Amino acid sequence: MRNLLIVCGIVLTAYIIYRVYQYQTLDKDLNQLIKKDAVILDVRTEKEYAMGHIDGSVNISLGTIRERYIELDPEKTYITVCSHGLRSVKVESILKEKGFRHVYNGGAWSDLQNRIHQKKNNISHRAH
After folding, report:
1. pTM of the model
2. CATH 3.40.50.1970 fits 2-127, yes or no
3. Mind telling me which PROSITE patterns this protein's record contains (predicted)?
4. What secondary structure, in 3-state letters, does the chain show?
5. Each residue of 18-56: pLDDT tens digit?
6. Does the pLDDT of residue 66 top 90, yes or no?
């Protein structure tokens, strides 16, 4: 039992470090990715997507990505999002397995939407 707890603790710590790295990396490059026409790929269900999403995002759920990835262009850049960031990590991994080279985990769609709006507001304030 103790060994199981230790292993779980190590896995959780590694996951947290990975997520912090992903957020820092994406946040740093967010403006460049958006300017380069990165596609925001929302991997939640259609029902979740209908309840709210980032304008212009594409909805292909985690449950259908293995069949529908052929609808995507492997040369484009994708930012995957979902409700909390777990499904988007999985889809990022699946797409990379399928040969997509430019895929980034954006985490929770609402967090990414807020960061996009903050970046746009910062840019518009500098312009005035």
Report:
1. 0.74
2. no
3. RHODANESE_3 (PS50206)
4. CHHHHHHHHHHHHHHHHHHHHHHHHHHHHHHHHHHCCCEEEECCCHHHHHCCCCCCCEECCHHHHHHHHHHCCCCCCEEEEECCCHHHHHHHHHHHHCCCCCEEEEEEHHHHHHHHHHHHHHHHHHHC
5. 655 455 446 657 667 877 789 999 999 999 999 999 999
6. yes
